[in-house]
Amino acid sequence: IAIIMDGNRRFARKNKLNDVTLGHRAGFEKMIDVMKWCIALGVKETTVYAFSLENFNRPKEEVDGLMQLAREKFEEMLSHRESLIKTGARIRVIGKLSALPQDLQDIVDRVEQGSKNNEAFILNICVAYLSTEEIVNSIAKISTNKTSVTENDISEN
Fold first, then answer.
1. Phi, psi dihedrals of residue 127, rounded to the nearest 5°
2. Residue 128: how many CB atoms within 10 A of its CB?
3. Is the pTM of this model over 0.70?
4. What is the 3-state secondary structure (H, E, C) of the chain?
5. What is the rounded distance in angstroms from the CA atom of residue 102 to the CA atom of residue 76?
6. In angstroms, rounded to a whole number, what is the distance separating the alpha carbons of residues 4 and 84?
7. Nearest in space to 24 (alpha carbons), one of 3, 9, 4, 2
8. Cα torsion for 99, 105, 109, 115, to the nearest 10°?
9. Of 28, 56, 65, 102, which residue is 20 to 30 A from 42 by alpha carbon distance?
10. Contact by Cβ (8 Å): 141, 107
11. How far apart are CA 55 and CA 67, in angstroms?
């Protein structure tokens, strides 16, 4: 299952929240509910598109709020590491992580490393991503030292 986290700012405005970051917080809490439902229903892998590279063009205050929210939530994952192990949840963060602040990159790495051996449920979190960049990077990766790329060169990895 893939989920695009969209509409958090609209939610904040509709509910007359004076800070759009509150809409993002509400969206994150709903995502946690959805992940619990996925696990309960036996879904083995879910991808959440959380923050694209284009989102860095939003107002600085909003971007800073989103980065702080990400720090808090990834830190929560670290503090609940035993729960991740118990449920067998693996967290993978996908995207151009170098675009994130260094401290957030470090936290993300610790979360990934702490859950890398879990396989019962995989949560892919896409941050600092663009689908076009993903395609370009994938083609570049498989075409290294090749004059052409065939279907046999392409895999899920």
1. -130, 150
2. 22
3. yes
4. CEEECCCHHHHHHHCCCCCHHHHHHHHHHHHHHHHHHHHHHCCCEEEEEEEEHHHHHCCHHHHHHHHHHHHHHHHHHHHCHHHHHHHCEEEEEECCHHHCCHHHHHHHHHHHHHHCCCCCEEEEEEEEECHHHHHHHHHHHHCCCCCCCCHHHCCCC
5. 18
6. 23
7. 9
8. -90
9. 28
10. no
11. 11
C-alpha distances out from residue 146 to 122, 125, 155, Å: 33, 31, 16
- Return the sign of the alpha-carbon dihedral for residues 98, 144, 131, 90: negative
In order of 71, 97, 98, 145, the CA distances from 68 in angstroms are 5, 15, 16, 41
Q: What is the mean pLDDT of the chain?
A: 86
Handedness of CA 116, 118, 120, 123 (dihedral sign): negative
